[in-house]
Design goal:
Elements (H helix, E strand, L loop, with lengths): L7 E3 L7 E7 L6 E7 L2 H18 L5 E7 L4 H14 L10
Parallel strand pairs: 3-4
Antiparallel strand pairs: 1-2, 2-4
C-alpha cells in the first residue's frame, strides 16, 4: 500500500467546490474522513463514498481526509481528491487512474 509523504490541500471554499486536505494517517488506522457539507443530510454518504473510492483506487491505506464541501459534483470531488494526493507526493499526474 502507498503512504502519504506530506500533508496537502486542493480546492476552494467557493460555491459548488470542495476543499480537501489530506495528511498521513496512523499506521493501521485506515481511511479517516472528516466531512463538513452544506448538503450533508442529502449527500453526505455519497460524498464519503466518492472520497473513499478515489483513495482506494490509488492504493492508499492510511490517510486522514478533511473535506469542506460547498455543493461540489462527484467529478469535482474526485478531481480535488486526486489533486490533493498528487500534491502530497503520492501519485504523479501521469499515473492517475
Amino acid at each position: 500500500m502507498v503512504q502519504l509523504l506530506r500533508p496537502a490541500q486542493a480546492g476552494t471554499l467557493e460555491s459548488n467546490d470542495i476543499m480537501i486536505t489530506v495528511a498521513p494517517g496512523e499506521a493501521g488506522g485506515g481511511v479517516v474522513i472528516e466531512l463538513d457539507s452544506l448538503v450533508m443530510a442529502q449527500y453526505g454518504a455519497v460524498i464519503r463514498q466518492t472520497l473513499a473510492d478515489t483513495v482506494a483506487v490509488q492504493g492508499i491505506a492510511d490517510v486522514y481526509i478533511k473535506a469542506v464541501d460547498r455543493g461540489a459534483l462527484d467529478c469535482t470531488i474526485r478531481a480535488r481528491m486526486l489533486a490533493a494526493l498528487a500534491r502530497a507526493g503520492v501519485i504523479s499526474e501521469g499515473v492517475i487512474v
